[in-house]
Design brief:
The protein is α/β, with parallel strands linked by helices and about 250 residues long. It is built from eight helices and seven strands; from the N terminus they run E-H-E-H-E-H-E-H-E-H-E-H-H-H-E. Strands 3-2-1-4-5-6-7 form a seven-stranded parallel beta sheet, sandwiched between helices.
Length: about 250
């Protein structure tokens, strides 16, 4: 198993991509802390599925530094170390630029950029003691491709892009790898409206060279590899997993 003996935190781990990553990590032998904000029962069921001696659910709001620090401490208290952080928690609030409020901006940036920053900081402090670790930031193709009507989200993901690169350089002396995963269109709750609208779904599918929307498990498979020792020489870049969507970015 690729992650045998390793300990991971997956933020936003109760649903969608986070859930798939947590399950995949569990199958590969990792012990896992599943962070959740609202969805307690799915998080606890996920831990039961993985194995209650190998997974714990912790409620934490990643927009609050105190919650992040408590999340990391709970993991170390339970499992004795921390090897992998997956910064997956995120929100999307599509709104025309001229109508975006200060409250929307602050909330989106707090979860999508502040959260990954301070989660990486708290995790890296522990990993630095161990002289090894992996930080995986779940970003988006929209760290690179504009998405009109979603400017705060794109700004946050663009920030994650440079956060990944900067931390990869700064944390390299501690043998901490920092990488990004940039999913394209994935079948998760955040894309529910598009997935349930046949016309929108067809338009989206037509823009993807592989002619299908990705599954959370597609992203999870990449995350497993990046978290494993096989990817120890990989750092400071984003791996886009989009079925070729970015090839047709100009038509989005």
């Amino acid at each position: 198993m690729q992650l045998e003996g390793k300990v991971a935190i997956v933020t936003g781990g109760s649903l969608g991509i986070g859930e798939a990553i947590a399950r995949a990590f569990g199958r590969e032998g990792a012990r896992i802390t599943v962070d959740y904000f609202h969805h307690q029962e799915p998080a606890e069921q996920l831990c039961r599925d993985i194995g209650q001696d190998r997974a714990i659910a912790v409620q934490a709001d990643v927009s609050k530094v105190a919650d992040i620090e408590r999340l990391v401490q709970a993991t170390v208290d339970k499992f004795g170390r921390l090897d992998i952080l997956v910064n997956n928690a995120g929100i999307e609030m599509p709104t025309p630029f001229l109508e975006v409020t200060e409250e929307q901006w602050d909330k989106q940036l707090a979860v999508d950029l502040k959260g990954p920053f301070f989660a990486a900081q708290a995790a890296a402090r522990q990993m630095a003691k161990q002289k090894k670790g992996k930080i995986i930031n779940i970003s988006s193709v929209h760290e690179d491709v504009p998405m009109p009507g979603n400017a705060p989200y794109c700004a946050a993901k663009g920030g994650v892009r440079m956060l990944t690169r900067t931390l990869a350089d700064e944390l390299a002396p501690y043998q901490i790898n920092v990488v990004g995963i940039g999913p394209g269109a994935i079948a998760t709750p955040i894309n529910k409206q598009t997935l349930e609208d046949p016309q929108k779904l067809q338009t989206l599918t037509n823009s993807i060279p592989l002619r299908r929307v990705g599954q959370p498990e597609d992203v999870a498979a990449l995350a497993v590899w990046l978290a494993s020792n096989a990817a120890d020489y990989v750092t400071g870049t984003t791996f886009f997993i989009d079925g070729g969507l970015m090839v047709n970015a100009g038509s989005l």
